[in-house]
Specification:
This protein is α+β, with helices and mostly antiparallel strands. The chain has six helices and eleven strands.
């Protein structure tokens, strides 16, 4: 079942370019800015360090998260933001996703509550025709982007596991993110390689993204704290959707903080899930 289109011609065309489950795509602005460089390069090969970044998050257990996704299409840019918590061991999370405003400054829709789980994305306040007390469930294994952009927020663990496919990386500087000392790395990851090295639950989504995007190469900037945990990561994705002749550019940013915060997520019961069909266009 298609979601309610965004009001305003230009925003509607931009959001429509993604064309997957109402595509909530948005901007990577708004996460904490970096400070000035404070030291030299750390020991260790950058590629090797980044291959293990996801493991450091699993060891940390859980964290609070802020997300931002920006999409540019046809000269129009739309931004969607999210905030919530994520459990890296259980691979579950809860986000409140805020959609962009229309050109007149009116809110397009109520915030959408999203639950992230292995193989599934649940959304409440999904769109027109869905009862207010029902959830929409999307099988992420069927999405050509591997759910890296469909929900308007990248699953934090999937974002980290993209780094398992790091091909090239360089240390940029020592700096700060939200007051925490970090090491900034910049590089490029290969999605097909990431899929081969990812945890079992994320091999399918990353493999789908490797086939569905315009290119399997993903440029990134990532900031690690002294324990090797990701504090901020920004990916730049590119893909061709439907009849689009030019690739759609998407920048996804995830900011992690408050490690160890409670992140209990209760998934909807079968009777609470909307039975209508949600199709990827």
């Amino acid at each position: 079942m298609a979601g309610r289109p965004l009001r305003g011609g230009r925003v509607r065309r931009a959001a429509g370019a993604l064309g997957t489950v109402g595509c909530l795509c948005l901007g990577a602005a708004g996460c904490a800015e970096s400070g000035a460089a404070t030291g030299g390069a750390p020991a260790g090969d950058p590629v090797t360090v980044l291959h293990g970044a996801a493991d450091a998050l699993v060891a940390a257990g859980s964290a609070k998260a802020r997300t931002s996704m920006e999409m540019a299409s046809g000269g129009t840019r739309v931004t969607i933001r999210g905030e919530g918590v994520y459990d890296f061991r259980e691979r579950t999370g809860r986000l409140k996703v805020l959609l962009p405003q229309d050109p007149a400054g009116q809110e397009v829709r109520r915030p959408i509550t999203e639950l992230l789980a292995p193989g599934a994305l649940y959304m409440k306040n999904r769109g027109a025709g869905v009862p207010a007390d029902k959830w929409v469930r999307v099988d992420t294994g069927t999405l050509s982007d591997g759910n890296l952009v469909t929900g308007g927020a990248t699953d934090p663990l999937v974002a980290a596991e993209v780094l398992r496919g790091t091909r090239t990386a360089t240390f940029v500087e020592r700096t700060e993110v939200a007051g925490t000392a970090v090491r900034h790395y910049r590089g490029t990851a290969d999605l097909a390689a990431a899929a081969r090295e990812a945890s079992e639950g994320n091999r399918g989504p990353l493999g789908a993204a490797a086939k569905g995007f315009a290119t399997g190469d993903v440029p990134f900037d990532v900031y690690l704290d002294d324990e090797g945990r990701i504090r901020k990561i920004r990916h730049r994705f590119s893909f061709v959707n439907g009849s689009q002749e030019r690739p759609v550019a998407v920048a996804s940013t995830t900011l992690l903080f408050g490690f160890g915060a409670p992140a209990r997520v209760r998934l909807p019961a079968a009777g609470d899930i909307y039975a209508g069909r949600i199709a990827e266009e």
